Amino acid sequence: MGPAALRATVLLLLGLRVSATAPPETAEPRLVPPRKSVPPSCDWRKARAVTPPGDQGDRCRACWAFASVANVESLWFIHFKKLYKLSVQEVLDCSGLKDACAGGYPWDAFGTIYTVGVTTAAHYPYQARQGQCRWNQNYVLRIHGFQTLPSNETELAALVAKRGPITVIMNARLLQNYRSGIITRHLSHNCNPDLLDHVVLIVGYGQENKIPYWIVKNSYGLDWGEKGYFRIYRGGNACGIAEVSLTSTVGQDGAGGRAHRARCPA
């Protein structure tokens, strides 16, 4: 099943909302992966390019906003060496969704940041409920748009290593009882890769005991999993993690500085 069909069959479980609309004016051509060989490992946390995992809470299915905002935070640091903790609440409030806490898509978040920008979490803290948009012109950044990514996991790993963390949609069934370790290929047979209900951020990848894995930032707080992260088998579309992936695009900061490349630590 391709991404277009999956978008129409997403479940209303942990943070997704069936929607026929995505902001096409912000969408850019599909990102082409680098042709060079993929590094054996990558962890953007070691470059201090990832903010600590947030906690969406039990009342608001805001994973779509948390994971998308986290993508923008990391890319902004990688390109401009400025790490902001950005406002998920502003994205919720200003998204234009009727009920943003019933779920949304990553492109809803990227479209909001593209259109109105986003300020810091300190100026617009998370409330775990949707409120009235309190937008003003004092945003700290805006993005150029977003790009969809290939579903081939070797190509995705190359893009993570070259460009930075990426936002993905997956089946969250096995996260409910996750504590630590790698969600193996065998375990992932217990979650349907076509039923996507949770949005997370891939921040790197590696291998342990010959098992390749993704390193994934969640939005269940620091006390969950491996200090807010989990690892899942890489290479078999475990729990649908490679079906729908996206990244924001940035090109220039507010001071006119141009983007530059960084290298992902192993």
Automatic annotation (TrEMBL):
GO terms for molecular function: cysteine-type peptidase activity. One of its GO terms (biological process) is proteolysis. Gene3D superfamilies: Cysteine proteinases. Keywords: Signal. This is Cathepsin F. Residues 25-57 are annotated as: Disordered. Pfam families: Peptidase_C1. Residues 1-20 form the signal peptide. It comes from Alligator mississippiensis (American alligator). CDD domains: Peptidase_C1A. SMART domains: Pept_C1. Residues 38-249 form the Peptidase C1A papain C-terminal domain. Belongs to the peptidase C1 family.
